[in-house]
Amino acid sequence: MLSSERICAFVIRKFWGDHLSISCGINYIFLIFLSEGFKLGTLLQITEWSEQVKILIVEDEPKMGEYLRQGLSEAGYVCDLVPNGTDGLHMALHGQYDLVILDVMLPGLNGWQVLQSLRDRGLQMPVLFLTARDHVEDRVKGLELGADDYLVKPFSFAELLARVRIILRRGHVNTESNMLRVADLELDLLRRRVSRNGKRVDLTAKEFGLLELLMRRHGEVLPRSLITSQVWDMNFDSDTNVIEVAMRRLRAKVDDDHPVKLIQTVRGMGYVLDVPEDH
């Protein structure tokens, strides 16, 4: 008989991979547990997987990469694997990952460069270096660049899994922080203050709410309908330019005095706050 963990991991990978709803997967697991006679307490443990946790693995050695991908997938995580730093940076910027596992010695951009680029763009997603570079100065460099952990090869998979779980728990706490940051733009939720490159930006209450939404979901194109429902708690007529006017005023305060423009219009789709890829 397969273990409950393997059944859960298989079913969740299957349903996510087929782009079906997670409720279908949970219902399917429920039927399996009933048919196999598992205890209800064991069934309830699958709620840990009710939210999709995505991990990006950047590893150029094929056997090691597949070993990591398979092991973490069986532990219930959704994993993507890329073999070089250039693709790794692109995926990390656009993939909405909860954790990046990053080698140092990579084709294209090395691991140091990938992490530096992420932090320069204001992305604070957790990063774990997994590398054969075992010198103390390498560990120090990785942590000073902003890595959350540093594990040296060869390693125990049980230890890696424990570190991953600790980082993810810590990352969940960090998302509840009172400060949002994207590049040199900062928004203090507690004090209701905004600054760009250290200079205070005065916003109205509505502009503050709009910027908060953009920063919380930075890198994601937000359609006009979502913005109106989240910030104005209503939907405007299609010929109303309230959103356009609000965005224009927000841009004037946040972007006009700075060379890097963070608030961008995606024609026909909506708006996004992100650092342009050429910066």
UniProtKB/TrEMBL annotation:
Sequence positions bearing 4-aspartylphosphate: D103
One Pfam family name is Response_reg
Name one molecular function that GO assigns to this entry.
phosphorelay response regulator activity
Q: Name one GO cellular component term.
A: cytosol
Q: Please give the InterPro entries that the UniProt record associates with this protein.
A: CheY-like_superfamily, CusR-like, OmpR/PhoB-type_DNA-bd, Sig_transdc_resp-reg_C-effctor, Sig_transdc_resp-reg_receiver, WalR-like, WH-like_DNA-bd_sf
Protein name, entry field: Two-component system, OmpR family, copper resistance phosphate regulon response regulator CusR
Q: Where is the OmpR/PhoB-type domain?
A: 177-275
- Tell me the SMART domains matching this sequence: REC (SM00448), Trans_reg_C (SM00862)
Question: Where does this protein come from, organism-wise?
Answer: Delftia lacustris
DNA-binding region in chain numbering? 177-275
Q: Which GO BP terms apply?
A: regulation of DNA-templated transcription
